Amino acid sequence: GMSKEKAIAKDQLIVSEVILGQGACSVIYREHPNILRFAGAVIERIQSGTFLAVFEFSPFGNLHDYLTKYAGNYVSPSSEEDLHERIPPVSAGSELNMNLNPSVLISFCKQIATAMAYIAQKKVVHRDLAIRNILVFHNNVVKITDFGMSKQLYEVSNYKVQIQKYEQVRLRWRSMAIESLRSMEFSSKSDVWSF
Hints:
The chain is of the alpha+beta class.
């Protein structure tokens, strides 16, 4: 029969070069509303051990840049009641994504926590959860990305990075848990620390 292909607009995609064997792409890029969607791959250079991974496009960029850009639009609650108003569901929010208020910020936190709970359930450790690795979409939806340093935990609840004498490992120490800094141990608990 005929194959069903879905056309995706060029401006809706991000192309990223990924080295085979790194990360937990095959495990983590499933349909979850708060994890960046893996759209496909180009395998022309698979002989050299690389392929191009294609991801959905984030119209508002990463959360760090987004919060910096719209910090002036923060709307402080006028009373204690406003602060405790109904927290919007994961997909709710302003289409224009320009007004920041406590409900929107709490919604961001809730979405990130939901995605991290999902990957912990799949026994995957992200190892690089940082504000720059959260992307912002329409309707105040945020999604976790950059699983390049992630690792699947099979039989153990944590794992220790073994660094060889001449091996270079790029770890971002500012968001690392104490046990990760001291002994290079990573777990879903160290991901929570990063969050």
